[in-house]
Amino acid sequence: MAGGAFAAAARLPTLFRRFKVTSAQHVAARHLDPTFEKLMEGYKHLLKAVAVQDLILASPAASLPFPLLSSAAPRLHLSRGAAYFVRAFPRVFSLVYDPFASQPVVRLTPAAARIASDESAASSASDAADRLRRLLCISSSRCLPLRAIFKVWRELGLPDDFEDSVIARNPTVFALRTNPREPNTHLLELIDQPPASKFISAAEDRRRRDHGSAEDPDWKFAFKLGFPPGMKLTKNYRAKLKQWQRLAYLDPYGNGAAAKQATAREKRAVAIAHEFLSLTVEKMAEVEKVSQFRNWMGMDLNIRDLFLDHPGIFYLSTKGKRHTVFLREAYERGRLIDPNPIYEARRRLLELVLMRRRGMGGDGREEEEKEEEG
């Protein structure tokens, strides 16, 4: 595509636009939302802090030998080394010498340890079981790879021992069986088969709350929309969007066999992605993690393109060298509209991360400017 043509395409809304561009060009052409970008600027550091935190909590006496953290730094993407990272967030980590181990160790500060404890306490096994049932019900086979669920356990707010505390303790609801497609792996299967009408999707619930039982075609099957600042919607785009919003909404918990037309399959894929994000405690997830469920949930579309093609419903950020998707309607001014205890605990940890070294002596601003952690 010529440079001028691509530039013109980049100025147009992405919905219903299928130019033959690379995935990277498609991502680059999206409209940026400063609020989500600012949020992800902090989250990219938070995610690394959480990875280090998990290693500490899994270590004996909640003390991680510093040499072990140093060796794990490349895997954790601590590009400037473990020592620099620990010193950059003194309200989260402390580096002390352990005379019994004869080596320096990394520990959580009392404030960070309390937050970790609060988050763990907020992870209710009953709520976790309900979210797992919902997730499995989106799959037509009522089963999902256990390895895929392990990768999103934090996003779903599951206890870190959910295989024992949730799955094993509910043998009449869940079962693990060998995955015939992959040796030495397991599938999580839903034994308890609730009727399709048992669960109401988040999108349908919002429509009922906002509009009651009226049959106005403009919202009957519509998603709540909110576009990035500065994104100009052409008259033609608005007309196509209105037409797309009026397409029948196919419940993500229902049978997807009725979605035979391409537009119907796309709308059902949007409904599934919308419900998946609604099940997460922060209404956000890495695109790569969502993609693991694509075939199991019947989304025969490129997931990243799906998010980019619907900027009024989703927002995709590339901060921190990862693609993260947010559910737009769940956020206002960079915060969840309907927070939950797990989100609140993580938000408190984010605030500690954002404070860095400020107020603790030295030039905190200089430290921040030097910080190049991706």
Describe the model.
The chain is of the alpha+beta class. It has helices at residues 3-10, 23-28, 34-57, 66-72, 82-88, 110-122, 125-138, 146-151, 162-168, 202-211, 235-245, 262-279, 287-291, 303-309, 341-355, 364-370; strands at residues 64-65, 93-98, 103-108, 143-145, 174-178, 186-190, 284-286, 314-317, 324-327, 331-332, 335-336. The chain has a three-stranded antiparallel beta sheet. Strand 10 and strand 11 (335-336) form a beta hairpin. Helix 6 packs antiparallel against helix 15 (341-355). The longest helix has 24 residues, at 34-57. The model is unreliable at 1-14 and 363-374 (pLDDT under 50).
Number of strands: 11
Separation, N- and C-terminal Cα atoms: 31 Å
**Secondary structural class:** alpha+beta
> Unreliable stretches, pLDDT < 50, 5 or more residues?
1-14, 363-374
**Helical content class:** 40-55%
Give the DSSP E fraction (strand runs of 2 or more residues).
5-15%
| Main sheet strand line-up | 1-3-2
Oligomer: single chain
The major sheet is characterized as: 3 strands, antiparallel
The radius of gyration is 22 Å
The H-and-E topology, N to C, reads as: HHHEHHEEHHEHHEEHHHEHHEEEEHH
Mean pLDDT: 87
**What would the principal axes of the Cα set say about the shape?**
globular
Per DSSP, the total helix count is 16
Brief overview, please?
The protein is 44% helix and 11% strand.
Task: Indicate the topology.
Layout: H1 3-10, H2 23-28, H3 34-57, E1 64-65, H4 66-72, H5 82-88, E2 93-98, E3 103-108, H6 110-122, H7 125-138, E4 143-145, H8 146-151, H9 162-168, E5 174-178, E6 186-190, H10 202-211, H11 235-245, H12 262-279, E7 284-286, H13 287-291, H14 303-309, E8 314-317, E9 324-327, E10 331-332, E11 335-336, H15 341-355, H16 364-370
Antiparallel strand pairs: 1-3, 2-3, 4-6, 5-6, 7-9, 8-9, 10-11
